[in-house]
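BUG: 3D viewer hangs when loading the predicted structure for this chain

Environment: internal workstation, default settings.
Expected: structure renders.
Actual: progress bar stalls at 90%.

Input used:
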Amino acid sequence: MMHNFRQLNIWKDAITIVKDVYILTAKFPVDERFGLISQIDRCSISVPSNIAEGSARGTNKDFAHFLKMSLGSLYELETQLLLAADLNMISESDEIFEKIIILQKMIVNFIKTLKE
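Structure tokens produced before the viewer hung:
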């Protein structure tokens, strides 16, 4: 079963997070360009990319596999942003954390619906 990723709320929300992350990391110290900035930006991009790639797979099982990879990237992103907060580059109360947690829950629930 093919899914149109552009119509999926999880993909739309992931794209919003990528944009927010890029705005956020643009404020990081320049010496982090090849460190945290690069890593954070790359894993944020991985989330909607895996959703899109998985949506083209022929089965729900394959799609769920890519959604799990997307979920892993979200947890990686959250971890790196928590580290950035520990290093006083951002605030842990930044709304990006809430968006990430909400999207994590949405992806988990979508995976459950694919298995039904």
